[in-house]
Amino acid sequence: MDYDRARSIIVNFIRSKVKEADSTGVVIGLSGGIDSAVTANLAVEALGSENVLGIHLPEEGVTSTKDSKDSEIIANSLGINFKNIDISRILNCFISEIPDESGEKPPVVGNLKSRIRMCLLYYYANSFYKMVVGTGNKSEIMLGYFTKYGDGGVDLEPIGDLYKTEVFELAKLLSIPEHIINKKPSAGLWSGQTDENELGLPYEIIDRILNLVFHGEKPENLQEIFDLTPDQIDLLLSRMKSNIHKRKVPPIAIVDAARHYME
Ligand SMILES: Nc1ncnc2c1ncn2[C@@H]1O[C@H](COP(=O)(O)OP(=O)(O)OC[C@H]2O[C@@H]([n+]3cccc(C(=O)O)c3)[C@H](O)[C@@H]2O)[C@@H](O)[C@H]1O
Ligand SMILES: Nc1ncnc2c1ncn2[C@@H]1O[C@H](COP(=O)(O)OP(=O)(O)OP(=O)(O)O)[C@@H](O)[C@H]1O
Ligand SMILES: [Mg+2]
């Protein structure tokens, strides 16, 4: 990967998408993690700091003070406008108004948190004629490892063609602070959650597998190449397969044959 080239493609992409939409800039959720740090950095390079609004959306007892501090460090170093809005009361309001049907499965409430964040980002995008910039990377998008209409509910995905391991490399080029690069990736939806625990493998291996699949390797050969258990491979392959719907617009039942002219 030529990272200078990737950087320039992404910066031009952000600039042209914002211009095409006649928008005043972008809103970004700043978590304190590397994906949002890299994306915010590239957005500033594309649009100037005055056109980027960073919003940190912590949850009491779940978001670490370290992440909150890091989101502020990123915003300050980029000189962007910054807001900090605690989502705990909004979340509690939801939960106290609906019966608990989650069966205590953490992703149910976790996904609700991600969707609350999406609503708040769009509230500000609407208010200031801005677009919501996503931070999804190629590993997350190929696996469907994001909340549909939560962190996946965005207007553009600038780093969506970079694997997570490539995001780490680009972060070094962009001089993102080392302690942010060295953090364990986490969706931060519940205490102790880490991507690699949930996905069952480290990103270095996940990305090598995804890249082989991306270039047409047969799933049955993967186990031998990586010396992994069938369960480890199956977990990734089944995520890829069962989450294809997350990368598509909702299907429409075609009633009027002329409809295809609209698409
Ligand atoms: N075939 C199909 N066609 C159309 N729609 C289909 C479908 N199958 C399910 N669905 C719909 O999709 C829903 C399931 O998708 P979704 O609600 O997203 O939920 P789900 O994929 O179960 O969970 C999201 C996963 O992403 C992880 N995550 C979330 C947020 C951020 C990050 C991060 O890395 O930062 C990671 C999270 O920890 C969890 O493992 C179903 O309830 C159903 O509504
Ligand atoms: N506490 C938060 N405040 C604001 N935005 C958030 C918060 N948590 C998640 N998000 C948004 O959701 C996105 C997806 O989260 P994700 O964890 O994949 O990325 P990250 O935190 O930037 O990097 P990493 O994956 O390494 O933790 C974030 O980049 C950010 O835009
Ligand atoms: Mg994170």
From TrEMBL:
Superkingdom of this protein's organism: Archaea
Domain NAD/GMP synthase, first and last residues per copy: 10-250
Record-listed deamido-NAD(+) binding positions: R115, K148, D155, H245, K246
Gene Ontology annotations of biological process type: NAD+ biosynthetic process
Family: Belongs to the NAD synthetase family.
Subunit-level organization: Homodimer.
Protein's name according to its UniProt entry: NH(3)-dependent NAD(+) synthetase
